[in-house]
Amino acid sequence: MEQNKAIIGIDLGGTNTCIGLVGADGTIIETLRFKTFDYPLIEDFIEKVSEQVVFLAEKFNLSKDNIRIGIGAPNGNYYNGSIELAPNLPFKGIVPLKDLLEENLKTKSYKANVVVTNDANASAMGEKIYGNAKNIRDFLMITLGTGVGSGVFVDNKLVYGESGFAGEAGHSIIVPDGRACGCGRYGCLETYCSATGIVRSIKELLQTQTKDSLLRQINIDDITAKDISDAADANDELALECFDMTAKYLALGLANAAVLTSPEKIFISGGLANAGEKLFKPLREYFEQYLYPVFRNRISIEPSGLPDNKVAILGAASLVAE
Predict the structure, then answer these.
(1) Does 314 lie in the same domain as 300?
(2) For position 307, what pLDDT does the model report?
(3) Residue 127 belongs to some domain of the structure
(4) Helices assigned H by DSSP within the chain
(5) Which residues of the chain carry a pLDDT beneath 50?
(6) Is 245 found in the same domain as 170?
(7) Does 262 fall in a domain?
């Protein structure tokens, strides 16, 4: 391998952290992963990431003088390389991620250039460079994971805004005084449409309705988003109602976001996107219903053109690509 061509992309998620070595042609050569919450102290987390970066560097003979690392992280600030007040991560407050990782690698005799951005921005970059947005100038990227993230492209440019945090659609309030959110407010989109949000929805339905459901066979505290999806695939009425509710809330959030930027397309990635038409069909219908009329029948909603395990890593890696 050409030592100075390979780069490292890191998808720091609320559930998993994935570290990928990416070749110059965009091929993911190797991926490592671990549970983010297994390392609740930032010092331990940084050490784990550093160890895995060194493992890849040694295995593939990367130059110690030029390790390039791009990181997509919840509330990652592109301007200063920090994570700031992330609601879905174990480490709170303002975390100087770039500086901490570069310093740790320096103690291991590695000189690193680390660039950090919001995780959904990284996914948007991945979609733009490697996915279905290559020829799209204006689009939204929505990630449905532990939370709901969004990246916004306008006129072929990723939007960061003055603070570096532009495009946080997941924290738009869609239900005034609704569900408590990890950000400290109530009624945010991600409390209804993330993987954790849909689980909250099914628990409410199970507790307030008497319909039979396959999900009643599972301890209510153990139900996962996949369980809901599997039940919906089996035509479970309550699970399908839960997906319809999720689609309705998501459509409202997307309609509100679309009116600000007039995207050509909205791409959706993340675990819930794998639910397929049981999410996308009602989502598209509600979206058209809620859209400002001038935008109707002009904006398509599509799944990401890249697998979940690639889009964020490739996008993060693109931050440091030459």
Answers:
(1) no
(2) 82
(3) no
(4) 42-59, 97-107, 119-130, 190-193, 195-208, 225-233, 237-261, 277-290, 308-318
(5) 1
(6) yes
(7) yes
Q: What is the CATH number of the domain that holds 90?
A: 3.30.420.40
Cα atoms found within 13 Å of the Cα of residue 101, Cβ hemisphere only: 28
Nearest to 141 by CA among 175, 103, 167, 109: 167
DSSP string over 116-137: EEEHHHHHHHHHHHHSTTTT-S
Distance between CA atoms of 135 and 128, rounded to whole angstroms?
8
pLDDT digits (tens, 9 = 90+) for 24-83: 888 999 999 999 999 999 999 999 999 999 999 999 999 999 899 999 999 999 999 999
Radius of gyration of the chain (CA): 20
Same domain (yes/no): 142, 268: yes
Same domain assignment for residues 107 and 150: no
Same domain? For 293 and 314 the reply is no
pLDDT of residue 312: 87
Q: What is the pLDDT, as a whole number, of residue 308?
A: 73
* pLDDT number for residue 10: 97
What's the one-letter identity of residue 21? Answer: L
Name the residue among 186, 188, 191 with its Cα closest to residue 168.
188
What DSSP assignment string belongs to 257-322? HHHHH--SEEEEESGGGGGTHHHHHHHHHHHHHHS-GGGTTT-EEEE-SS-HHHHHHHHHHHTT--
The count of structural domains within the chain is 2
Sheet of 265-269, strands arranged across? 157-158, 148-154, 139-144, 265-269, 300-303
pLDDT value of position 4 = 57
Is residue 321 packed enough to be buried (19+ CB in 10 Å), middle (13-18) or exposed (0-12)?
middle
pLDDT digits (tens, 9 = 90+) for 278-290: 999 999 999 999 9
Cβ neighbours around 63 below 10 Å, total: 14
